[in-house]
Amino acid sequence: MSVNYGSKRIVVGAHYGLRDWLGQRVTAALMALFTLIVLAQVLFTAGPIGYDKWAGIFAAQWMKTLTFCVIIALLYHVWVGMREIWMDYIKPIGLRLALNVFSLVWLVGCAGWAVQVLWRL
Questions:
Q1: Kind and range of the H or E run holding 89
Q2: What topology does CATH give the domain 17-118?
């Protein structure tokens, strides 16, 4: 008969903790900085803001590229958050997998839509 002196620690999970925590903070900081840049452009635009001026803000290639980078950061931010919610609160494995796949497909679709919107301006 074996004797158990103490307990063995069983660690489960995918070990995403620090990477996801840091990813959420970096993407949030990037989105906040982008918001300040857009807000500054809107505030320092003379006259009323109509479609022409709004489209003009996003017409420059550097702004389109920055906006797309922020959209990718937003999609990663959302993916990490939704994955954590599904892992924490959805216990049936099949349902959790289906929700993860649906979330991922939805986010990839949103990225494609963002490309269309940005480069059609």
A1: helix 61-89
A2: 3 helical TM bundles of succinate and fumarate reductases (1.20.1300)
